[in-house]
Automatic annotation (TrEMBL):
Keywords: Membrane, Transmembrane, Transmembrane helix. Coiled coil: none annotated. GO terms for cellular component: lysosomal membrane; trans-Golgi network membrane. One of its GO terms (biological process) is regulated exocytosis. It comes from Vidua chalybeata (Village indigobird). This is TMM79 protein. The chain crosses the membrane at residues 30-54, 75-98, 104-125, 132-155.
Amino acid sequence: LLCPCLIYGAYIFLPFDAPLLPTVSARLVYTLRCAAFATFPIVLGMIVSGISRLCSSALEPFGELHREVEIHRTYVSQSVHLFILYFFNMAVLATYLPQELLKLIPLLTGLFAISRLIFWMSYAIGRSFRAFGFSMTFLPLLAMLLWNLYGMFILEPENLLS
């Protein structure tokens, strides 16, 4: 319930509009530029993972990882997988959205980045707390996937492969 409320509130109250993007290629470039900001939590996780591995007191560099190192490594791995799914769904979504709804692209990007950071912090606290951050990442991704399938097969089935 929180994700739709956050997106709707940001859509209504944030004072920016998407630029005029009449072609599919312009929309994809816009999506690519927005998606670059979604990589910030992943890059930050890679940096922290490297630092924690360097500062680890392990005598075997390829041996058993400590919990602190394992948390960051798992976060980066899961974030990369979710970012790939996010990016492809966002690229398809950008081709189906009308011009007045293209403001959702940067809003969904911001939600992805914030939710991954929330997941990371809650995962470091304890494994039982990570469900909130994961659901803030996964449920908008699932909604995008369902909208994309609806757009491809119901709204414009004649343009499915074009």
